[in-house]
Design brief:
homodimer; 10 strands; two-stranded antiparallel sheet; 15 helices; eight-stranded mixed sheet
Amino acid sequence: MTSPRVSFGIDRRALLAGAAAIPVLLGLPIPRQAQAQADPLASWNDGATKQSILDFVAAVAREGSPDFVPAPRRVATFDNDGTLWCEQPMYVQLAFGLDRVKELAPMHPEWKDKQPFKAALDGDMKTIVESGERGTLELVLAAHAGMTSDEFETIVKDWLAKARHPKFNRPYTDLVYQPMLELLAYMRANGFKTFIVSGGGIEFMRPWSEQVYGVPPEQVVGSSIKTRFEMRDGRPTLFRLPEVNFIDDKTGKPIGINEHIGRRPIAAFGNSDGDLEMLQRTTLSGGVRLGLIVHHTDAEREYAYDRQSHFGKLDIALDAAALNKWTVVDMKKDWKRVFAFE
Amino acid sequence: MTSPRVSFGIDRRALLAGAAAIPVLLGLPIPRQAQAQADPLASWNDGATKQSILDFVAAVAREGSPDFVPAPRRVATFDNDGTLWCEQPMYVQLAFGLDRVKELAPMHPEWKDKQPFKAALDGDMKTIVESGERGTLELVLAAHAGMTSDEFETIVKDWLAKARHPKFNRPYTDLVYQPMLELLAYMRANGFKTFIVSGGGIEFMRPWSEQVYGVPPEQVVGSSIKTRFEMRDGRPTLFRLPEVNFIDDKTGKPIGINEHIGRRPIAAFGNSDGDLEMLQRTTLSGGVRLGLIVHHTDAEREYAYDRQSHFGKLDIALDAAALNKWTVVDMKKDWKRVFAFE
């Protein structure tokens, strides 16, 4: 958690940023160490993919560039599942939901004979998948409603602290892509405001997005359920209701972006058909824009999947990428490293 | 519009902020001019009200204070109508709606005989008010839907450029409260992130909030109608539908804050019963918090109204202010100046 301490108008980070530039201001020689700056995208192999990112940032963030965009309009939106962290063998939030249904099962004896809950308790993924959107929604609402927003935050944090990925046997928050962490930081260093725009639950991501991605809660956009304001023992709480409020996927992404951000992004990053409309809205309205798709091609270091995948299906968005000249990351070829722990 | 130009990691504003502090770092004598800093709340008269603001900021933003709050959690939320700008003799957005209904009337001959449109065309405020929430909503939807989000932004900007306040004969954006502008800037200088949280339309405020208040679109929370994503001539647009999405008023305010910001504010500013739950949620959960109510007591320089007012009614929130020790601004007594043009 970053916690710059500010008092009486002097911001330490601003101070340091300013101090670092003093030699330039005063015409002093710049230390060699500072000249030979580390590659901000060190985990990206050199090539057309990496170059397209560098070129875009130079075009919009370098003063005097004909395509210069003022900093407040440098909005970049990132999908989460499959773009910033691993979404296989199932969405992390689904793993959370299944664990939570198991935990709540003693209070719901009827679930033993009721689908899709029975399947969840049996770990029967096939039946869950076959229960479709409606079945999945029932599971999600059972797992995510019925408590205050503060209580839910604690539940998410506690689960993430102990849950482990079945293949890598590590906390899910270790399974974020190192090249994308570098990309987030690189964009921010160039005056971009970085947002997460995910089909996942907004309240599922916020408890850890700042620590893991450097993206504060107010820059997270996601799906949500409705809440009700109520006083409990003199304390104002928000109680989470088993009712969908907003689905931040497909056409929902540009709608959610408009609602939360109120500006059109100039760069958007995704990996599946759920990101199609966000990339269209970002790139098809004139100006130099960056659309980028992470293509999972690395069965060895992570997973390889696209057109036929159940989670993170990349089919029409892959065709659209070719049509619209979006950058397609070939994970196997373009990423020197996938995870930080490698 | 602020447009700091950032390139290659060097932010000019940060540079200037840092440069100003260099004498302190180097132990150099500080120029007298810099020592005798201007009062950041120059338009506030000295007294208990102003002191409560200064004390709060010192308590949460001064490092080493027992009540210190790290900068990322320094969230402050401001109501708009009646808190940041004038809401009499009617909400600015209602004036916009009435003008727009007049403009659209030639395409809707049926409005001549249909309430509340007839009343809007006749300028019959009594009938509009009597048409209640349902009638007002009909007017709002007629005025705010049926175009793309980009088109609506242009409509709002064009209207604000030519509309004049009936009493002051000035653009509505001149009728923002100078003391509140100073307060917004003072909070930001002390590491606060300032948000607008208004019952007004989110898309009605965003086109000018940055220029007028220094609050960027992504930090504006408000009421909204639904939008539909659609491709028009190969360009992705958001079309505004005549259907309510969210009402950001009363209990809607803490809900909207949770949805957009995802953090509980530590300071909240309002002026009416519509702000009650936002102030409760902000102040009644432990820790040093600031709740502030602007009480309109100045019939000469602005307006005097509270418990019986049709717009901006301040009744139960005024009682709650006494109960919860919220700061109540007596506009006549506490503000040296109301508007910048005085």
